[in-house]
Amino acid sequence: MLLFLSRTHVTYAFSAVSPLDGAFDSLVLPHVNSDCMQICINEMASRYSSDHIVMIVDGAGSHKSKDIHLPEIHLLFLHRIPLN
Questions:
Q1: pLDDT, tens digit, for every residue of 66-81?
Q2: CB of 29 closer than 8 Å to CB of 14
Q3: CA 10/CA 57 separation, integer angstroms
Q4: How far, in Å, are 6, 19, 28, 76 from residue 79 at the CA level?
Q5: What are the Cα distances from residue 60, in Å, to 3, 66, 80?
């Protein structure tokens, strides 16, 4: 008898694109949670510190978490209105 053990490793892409110039940036992180969302926010704020950033997000729990802290100066969340 043959026994195959498989372990699947899942990663998640947190991505952003600029509608003005098409610049694309992303991070590959191990989870979709508020901790990883905060890492993404901090990294984007650091990489684009001279820009004003608006992130359009859906209703995911990590987007609405009270644990998320946005840089006060140049990053804003805009919550997408559900289509249905």
A1: 888 887 767 666 666 6
A2: yes
A3: 22
A4: 38, 17, 22, 10
A5: 38, 12, 11
